[in-house]
Amino acid sequence: MILVAQVSDTHFDLGTRNAERAERVMAYLAELRRRPDAILVTGDITDSGEPEQYAEARVALDADIPVYTLPGNHDDRAAFRTTLLGEAASTAPINHAHRVGDLTVALLDSSVPGEPGGRLSEETYDWLRGVLLAAPADAPILLALHHPPAHLFSPVVDEISLAEPEKLAEVVAADERIVGVVTGHAHSAAATTFAGRPLLIAPSTASVLGGEWELELPHRVMDYAPDPAVALHVIEENHRITTHFRNVAMDGWIGVQPS
User: How far, in Å, CA of 76 to CA of 246, rounded?
Assistant: First the structure.
């Protein structure tokens, strides 16, 4: 099996709270008996795209497990590239693919500079088609992006989700090797289907955003009380994907039931 951890919406802001929560999640993953083969960080890595925030993220997300990152709507492509990836500054989409065992992970940049909603550019679609063409014929593929391409019954997120999701759906439906699509952005663990495949939305390490049955706009929107959480995706030899969502207690492990 292949184990892929997904961390999302860390919102590094130079404050101690969000950094400590992300660091606790990274420590939890490093301490697992069966450590992940890779860690995906699916966007909104920083709160406002400042270079200093990416410097903070680079330190906190450093691990001896491969860590692959993609931007969200709170990120800045130029600063993301220079400070987090060590590349030359550019405002072009940040798309990249990696092999994790026999799994190909394609990370798609759905961010639109200056906008909260998401969209995959034609440049990104062309790049993705190239990745699919080059991937092994009998090996699984996992797609990752920030903005969910489906309605999640969130009064906040549904207004700023992925535009034109039908274009991505055509690509996903046409390739049986794609085992699932993973995203962030919603600040809530969720699972549904998209183009006949699992769509798995990771929780945020920073906060929780409720559904329409919980929110009372404009009040009681973001909940900062819950512990940070992470998604753990297991890809089996038969290419079946199973996901566990795990809260990571800031106070650590308690192995005896409190009285």
Answer: 29
